[in-house]
Amino acid sequence: AAPGTAAVDRFDAMLIFGTPVVCGFLQVPLVEPFEYGLAWSAGLAGLHYLALATLVARRGGEELSVLAESQRWVGAALLTLAVPFAFGARATVALWALEGAAAAWVGAQRERLRIALAGLALQLVAGGYFLLHADELKHVTALANDVFVGGMLVTIAGLIGSHAASRLNPKAAPQFLSAAMLVWSALWLYGTGLNEIDVFVERPWRFAASLALVALPLVAAEIAGKRLSADTINVSGGDSSVSKGETLMDTVRTLQAMAAPTNEPATRVTNIGQPRADLNCQETTASRMPMAIPE
Length: 295
What we know:
Blueprint: H1 6-31, H2 37-60, H3 65-86, H4 89-109, H5 113-132, H6 146-166, H7 177-200, H8 203-227, H9 248-259, H10 276-288
Helix pairs in contact: 1-2, 2-3, 4-5, 4-6, 5-6, 6-7, 7-8, 8-9
């Protein structure tokens, strides 16, 4: 087959990407008995491919640019795999989330769609790895624990990814990427915050803390939107309970009272609107009344 045809391209792709995969599987039983053997093997292989890509890019020029880029991808993938082999879940989530955010940002700045999409995908992988290994993370001190720090890193990486996705070419990238990453970031923010409240906040204050958790990011987003000259929607308080003299703390106390559990048994109501307890009393009274027996 002539160079540049589909058959040659498939063969070249198998050589470039298949070689490290096959060699990696063959090397696992050789280095696994050693401490951090897999981490050292993957890390050194990744550095080797990055150095080789730099050498090819300098000497090959435009003719070997595709080969150099492919080797960069292989090197970055091997270094990414070396992280969980060497560190725990906390460092893995942090490095993968930050690496994904950096890749998405660089891809958006250089208008490289594949790099940006790879960065966004790596953030999803980091979130999944976090959920699968959450039991390995320490959760002792409020805010200063592995679960909260890891969740916030995934949240921040998601915000960076959302901003990077909004800068991509709308003709080449799906238009929902930015909104999807923003929803992903919001879910991690509120999920991590609510979990922290559930673990460390006393029961009477959980509702107020949850309400503050929901409100504060929205206020911060509105302030940031105004400074960035973004379109914001303001809701007037003239038709709300504020015009009647009710404050925010009054609303919080009212909602707390509605959500507070009561020790009194609930009164059941019949179809005609009469309490079941009253009917029971009437039935008991009627059963105790003497009945006249006709002669």
